[in-house]
Amino acid sequence: MDVRGYLRLIRRHWWIVLITLMAGLGTAALVTVRTPPRYVASVTFFVTTPSQGVTDAYQGGLFLQQRVKSYADLLTSDRLAQSVVAESPLGLTADQVQGRVSTSTEAGTVLLRATFTDTDQNRALKTTETLSAKFVELVQKVETPPDAKSAPIKLEVVSGPRVSSSPVSPQPARNLVVGGLLGLLLGMALAVLRGLADVRMRDAAALQRVTGSPLLGEIPFESGARSAPLIVGEAANSVRAEAVRKLRTNLRFVDVHEPARVIAVTSALQGEGKTTLSCNVAIALAEAGWRVLLIDADLRRPKVAEYLGLDGGVGLTDVLVGDVQVGDVVQRWGDKSLLVLPSGAAPPNPSELLGSKAMADLLLALRESADIVIIDTAPLLAVTDGVVVAVQADGALLVTQQGRTSRSQVAAAARSLHSVSVRLLGCVLNMAKVPKADAYQYESYRVTVPAAPAAVPADRARAARHGAAANDGDDRTRELSRLPR
């Protein structure tokens, strides 16, 4: 996966990054509040030697630099800490004094700096003053030979002791920056790990790889599609409707040398929107002037008649058992060249009925009665009905809902079609998240509905309605006459 892929995973799981960022900032703030303030008192010593000690200046400088390193260890010794506590008992033990003293030296110089850290500002200053006096006294005692009057090395205080006016810790700004940065990095790592571990179908590229078929369309998610699933009325000018029209175009030209006239629409699981897509594709094809026949072959949970507002009590099941003729139960929908064959009564043996010779003969006859036959079938992983119908069609269209179906389920559905040599025309990613930029481009280029025409006189309107009704009856008679009896 490239950098863009990782960035997409982070953007997809932005809420994880936000939670960890807030957790990091909160932890840093809590630590800052609960940490007692600490003050630092410091003192700087200058190490020198009398002129009568070492005559050569260069060798004397090297000698003093070596001694400064020893003095740094002496500042943190047990002996000095015990003498400080004995001189000025401020509620600290020798171990505590020794642990709070730190030293530093500058390379190439004879300066020695000692710092003492404490939560009490006054105690830090008093302890440093006592430490400074006892350290000078100890050095003079150690460096002065028993028979000498003065030490060959002299130690002077050149800065301090002084204590900081404000606490050196905690540092709220630094803590918040560090906490926020750690939370951000942790959130990004968790977002990437969650994305890599997510087995659900998230994008069109993954759907193509899993199914091994071309992507014919991405149908965007619209919150109003649940209450108004069909692309009619106001929904006809939506982004979803335009995506269905693109699918219609791709479906017609997916194979120009061997066009599919009978298409089975199926999915891996139920609830992925295959029935809605079947209805909308049929409507889009009819809008383009094709003679379309939509068949509801999902005999276990039929929904086509409900979506289109038709009577589904008599339909495909009754035709297959020989109770009625197909021309008697096919219904015309709307003012478009769209015929609908509902499912009919629920049979006890859907798979056997759909795989019967009567079903094969019916599809063979309907192939000549319409330009395109769309068949809504059952989910592939739930029952075998979808495979049984797809075998008899010219090809299958696999619908997958984004973020719901796992890659393994989609792969199993594709294998079930390939195992019986079903021609998989392509796949459709349903309820997909469309970038705002794409939606804005469509909205900015959508067709403006013209103003309503002037009112028509009543007598002319009645004549027009009479003529339209007559033409409508003639069209229905011609369409139904093509259906087998």
From TrEMBL:
> How does the UniProt record describe the way this protein sits in the membrane?
Multi-pass membrane protein
Q: Which Gene3D superfamilies match?
A: P-loop containing nucleotide triphosphate hydrolases
- Where along the chain is composition biased (Basic and acidic residues)? 473-485
CDD domains found in the cross-reference section: BY-kinase
Query: Can you give the residue ranges of the Polysaccharide chain length determinant N-terminal domain?
Result: 1-87
Location of the AAA domain: 261-402
Pfam families in alphabetical order:
AAA_31, Wzz
| Location (main, coarse) | membrane
Q: Name one GO cellular component term.
A: plasma membrane
Leader sequence residues = none
Enzyme class name: transferase
Q: Which InterPro entries match?
A: AAA_dom, Bact_polysacc_biosynth/exp, LPS_length_determ_N, P-loop_NTPase, Wzc-like_C
Q: Where in the cell is it found?
A: Cell inner membrane
* Documented EC number(s): 2.7.10.2
User: Per its UniProt record, what NCBIfam families does this chain match?
Assistant: eps_fam
Q: Give the similarity note.
A: Belongs to the CpsC/CapA family.
Specify the protein name: non-specific protein-tyrosine kinase
Q: Which organism is it from?
A: Micromonospora sp. CCTCC AA 2012012
